[in-house]
TrEMBL record:
The keyword Amino-acid biosynthesis applies. Belongs to the type-II 3-dehydroquinase family. The active site is at 24 (proton acceptor), 100 (proton donor). HAMAP family: AroQ. Catalyzes a trans-dehydration via an enolate intermediate. Keywords: Amino-acid biosynthesis, Aromatic amino acid biosynthesis, Lyase. The record marks 19 as: Transition state stabilizer. Its EC number is 4.2.1.10. Substrate binds at residues 74, 87, 101-102. Homododecamer. It comes from Roseomonas fluvialis. This is 3-dehydroquinate dehydratase.
Length: 145
């Protein structure tokens, strides 16, 4: 049975491969999307990126209303500031995996307090771009359990 997994990306992730490669690596967002689709197997993937908080909230609502199987979300900078993203995720009743390319706990203190972690089923941080495929596989394992 095919399920739909939403992979949602926040601000500046469209700059992957160019932005601070010493932190985020050289993998582009298009390459990340390909990794997610490969990891999803027979499951469908809705893969999106936005630089706008309200758009991310709308996509979480869409995942909720469509009965998505799960969400992998890298809210980027909104992780630490967005009550609207937090509130939208609270309404999503299926598994949520919060993902960060870098290990946010090894970075400056401003990156240590995730608002999203309190509602996430699991958190993956510090695996680089390959963390996305890991997150999709983990989400599939959770759904299969």
């Amino acid at each position: 049975m095919s399920r739909t997994i939403h992979v949602l990306n926040g601000p500046n992730l469209n700059r992957l491969g160019k932005r601070e490669p010493e932190i985020y690596g050289h993998t582009t967002l298009a390459e990340v999307e390909a990794m997610c689709r490969a990891a999803a197997g027979e499951d469908a993937v809705v893969f999106r990126q936005t630089n706008h908080e309200g758009q991310l909230v709308d996509w979480i609502h869409e995942a909720t209303d469509s009965g998505a199987a799960g969400i992998v979300i890298n809210p980027a900078g909104l992780t630490f500031t967005s009550i609207p993203v937090l509130d939208a995720l609270k309404m999503f009743e299926s598994p949520v995996i919060e993902l960060h390319i870098s290990n946010i706990h090894r970075r400056e203190a401003i990156y240590h307090r995730s608002l999203v972690s309190g509602v996430a089923t699991a958190v993956i941080a510090g695996l680089g771009a390959r963390g996305y495929a890991t997150a999709v596989r983990a989400l599939r394992d959770i759904l299969d359990a």
